[in-house]
Automatic annotation (TrEMBL):
Pfam families: WD40. The keyword Repeat applies. GO terms for cellular component: endosome membrane; fungal-type vacuole membrane; Golgi membrane; nuclear periphery; TORC1 complex; TORC2 complex. This is Target of rapamycin complex subunit LST8. Belongs to the WD repeat LST8 family. Keywords: Repeat, WD repeat. Residues 257-283 are annotated as: Disordered. WD repeats lie at residues 71-112, 112-153, 203-237, 332-373. It comes from Emericella nidulans (strain FGSC A4 / ATCC 38163 / CBS 112.46 / NRRL 194 / M139) (Aspergillus nidulans). One of its GO terms (molecular function) is protein serine/threonine kinase activator activity.
Amino acid sequence: MSVILCTAGYDHTIRFWEALSGICSRTIQHPDSQVNRLCITPDKRYLAAAGHNNVKLYDIKSTNPNPVMTFEGHTNNITGVAFHCEGKWMVTSSEDGTVKVWDTRTGSLQRNYAHKAPVNDVVIHPNQGELISGDRAGIVRVWDLGESVCTHQLIPEDDVAVHSVSVASDGSLLCAGNKKGNVYIWRMIQEAEVTRIVPICTFQAHKDYLTRVLLSPDVKHLATCSADHTAKVWNLDLDFPPAKTAIAAAARSKVKSPSAAEVKPASPSSAGSESQSNSMQLERGKADSIPFHLLNGTQPANNVEPPPSFPVQPDGPPMDPNTGTLFLETTLANHQRWVWDCAFSADSAYLVTVSSDHYARLWELASGQIIRQYSGHHRGAVCVALNDYSEPR
C-alpha cells in the first residue's frame, strides 16, 4: 500500500488501482451522488470523497465499504477538499458559496467562510495557517485561519470564473486557472506575519474551458487540464535547457536588429509614464483587492477591453518569446473527451489524468508516453487522488 491511487466520477463508484499493473484492487459504491473530488490524508489512512452535499471519509486499509465518518453541512456540490498536514482538520469548498473547515476527529464544523458566488476550489497553504479559494465571480481569496478573516482578494479578470487554484509545496507560488483557459501566477512572499502577493505572469494555456491547474511537488512544472481533450505540462524551471536556448537566441536577435521604437529617445511623457508604472509596482503588494487592470491607474471605458496589466516579472518563470506562454514541455493528447483532473507523483516525473472518456492514464512526463491505462469506470472519471510519498507529508 505504498502507492495509493484512486479515481471516481459519474458512475457512483470509487476505484482503487494497483498503479503499476493497472488492476482495480477495490471498488467502493457511492450511491448518494457522483463524486466530484478525492483527497488522501497525508498518512495514507483515509480517503475523502466529496459528493453533492457531503464528504464521506473511508478507511483505506479496511475492507469496510461504508464510510467511517460523514461531514454534513454543505447545501450544494462540494468542489474542493484538502487536509491539514497532520490530518487534524479538513477544508472543503462548495457551489453553495462557502468554504468550511472541519475537525476530522469529531466531524464538527470549525469555520465557515462566505464567498458571494459559488466556490470552485480550495487549497491549504503549506504554512497550514492560510486557505486559498477561487469562485465563479472570478475572485481568488486568501483566508487567515488564525484571525478568521480574508486577507487578500485577487481579481485576475473581472467576472471570469476561476475554476482551479494551486499553491506551491514551498509556498512560493500561487496559480489560478479560469474559464477562458488563462493561467495567472503570483509570487507569495512571507514578510514577518504577513503574506505579500505579487503578480509575476499570465498566459493562455488552452483555448477552451480550463478544468484544473496543478503545481508539481518540486515546483518545476505546472499541469493544466482542459475541455480541449488535452492536459499540458509547462516549465517553471529557470534552468530548463530549451528555455535557456530560446531566450538566448531571442536576445541575440534583438541585439542584431533593434526596432525603431527601441532606438527612439524616450519622450518626457513616456518617462513620466514609466515613473508612474514603477510607482504602481511598488504599491502592488498593498493593492490585492483591486482588479489588476486598475493597478495601472486606468479605468477602462464601457465595452472596452482593459489594457494588459499583469506584468512579466524578471524573477518569474521563463517565458517563451515565440508564444508568450510558459515553455510547453509536453502535451498529453490521447484523451477522447474532457480532461477533468490530474495528480503528480511524488518525484514529479509522472502524472495521472482522468477524463470523460472513462479512463485514467499514467503518463511519463519525460517522454510524454502513456505508461498505464486504467479501465473500469463506465461513465466519466472526473477526479483522481495519488499518494506515493515514502513518508507522511
